[in-house]
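User: For documentation purposes, I need each entry recorded in a consistent format: the amino acid sequence on its own, followed directly by the corresponding structure tokens. There are two entries in this batch. Please keep commentary to a minimum and don't merge the entries.

Assistant: Recorded as requested. Entry 1:
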Amino acid sequence: MQAASIRDYTVRDGLKLFATHYGPEQGAPVLLLHGGGQARGSWAQSGEALAREGFRAIALDMRGHGDSDWSRDGRYALDAFADDLREVIATLDRPPVLIGASLGGLASLLAVGEVPEAPAAAVVLVDIVPWMEKRGGEQVVDFMRGTSGGFDTIEEAADAVSGYLPHRPRPERLDGLSRNLRKKVDGRWYWHWDPNFVRPQEGWDMDKINERLSDAAQAIRAPLMLLHGTNSEIVSAEGASRFRALLPDAEVAPIAGAHHMVVGDDNNAFLGAIVPFLRRVQPMAVA
């Protein structure tokens, strides 16, 4: 299997976005888009698995996250993330499948649904829908804001994550967690994203955004799929049902027992659902 490589994309406001490419250059492209406060490393196992299936998986650090540049003015409107995706899509040799978790899914809907010139072979939403559960979203933001001041040790960060995700066993090895942290000159460990991202931002009126997301989803002509955790704090059973009613042709795959962090909770179930779908919508993948 071809070794993974790191590449960068410069978007219109001069920011540089970094991505890890997995799989053969001739493979059908699949863009992997993380959630808020995460980074492209959260897709490492999925990217490697998709590469083994013959796909060209591209895990992108969205602006303000991971190794990508931070917004110069500290603003992170949803439109900026969507614009970035359109520019990355434009560099590819054929329409990709967009697989977006949480923030990545919101940006995918707007990127493709509001600008028909932004082609996509399919759009996959990972535990995100219009009309997400407000309380669940608040819990995510509260955790991010509450830990943005950093940690004395990686072990302290692990304790914080375990408290936030009590359904997951605390990992014995902290290598994966350490990839999402950076040690600064003050000796403390900080999440690898711009703390401005979780400060109050203009353009994040969720009532207005939900209407836009709904309209964008209905405008997409490519195949749509929703994967959601049955224990999700963000996508309720009502939200999933409303999604089905809005988009009766979309595929919906509940991941039993998973919470909002579907890929981290059960990556095998995620792959078991996504690979057959990709085979159907991206038939030009290399075997």
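Entry 2:
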Amino acid sequence: MSDSLHVRALSAWVIVCVVWGTTYLSNDLAIASIPPFRYASLRFLSAGIIVFLAARWYAGDDGTSVRDIVLHPTARAGMLTLGIGVGANIWALQWLPTGVAAVLVAGVPLYMVLVDRFVFDGARLRPAVGLGLALGLTGIALIAMEQSGDPSAAEASLIAVAGVIAGGISWAFGSVMIRYTSPPADLASTAGAQMLWAGALQGAVSLVVGETLTEPVTLLSGGAAVYSVLIGSCIAYSAYLYALRHLSVAFVSTYVFVNPVIALWLGWLLLDETMTMQTVAASAVILAGLALTRFRSRSRKT
């Protein structure tokens, strides 16, 4: 991989780390007055239309039909990553604090590496990468231990917890499938098609469960939804697919180590929540795990 391509891939990964660390908050604010499945459907359908149309306009007449893009397995994988993966997380925020949800999603790197190795017969897990993942999970565990003292976290629904974990496993399968399947067109078109599939799935679920608006959508919820569409989906998800194409699965998946740290620090900066020494120490452990995984992943050819 050339140095310029490597820098672009790393930049895409940084965008994913930072932006998705903020979307736990924006999702929670959005579902305060919008039913979760309807919100997820509107978020992904809106973002999907924007990204897909922009990508097709930019690509011009490249000989690829819309049907080939939308019906390709890479596009349908969006139901696993966004539809079930993110959708389950949004749904669970009705009962789980945003920080707890972010901590639970931290199991995704383990799922991705195991799926890559044992389902898709991918690269053997190197000791250094395994140690980096272990350090990251240790840091997440330290944060989880501190969060467990929060009564709201202790009373969180077990069903919601199971939903987040199941969503993480679904995300892992979809992500590894995307990595090993060549898209029929550019990544932006593929990302848009994936969002459309996810939005359709969430819309169907919303209809099945009979969601209705029980109160007017507040300005805060509407603003959070717009942020999630434009920044969380249009920009960050496209960056995620780009990073996944050019960096190792093990390294890209470590974004979930950074997300809980950002979520907790945002709470301290914007919501005047307490930042303890245990949180600071956990953040340091997480970053150490990232550094180790990053060092061992750089040499992998893509």
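Summary note for entry 2:
Residues 3-297 form one domain.
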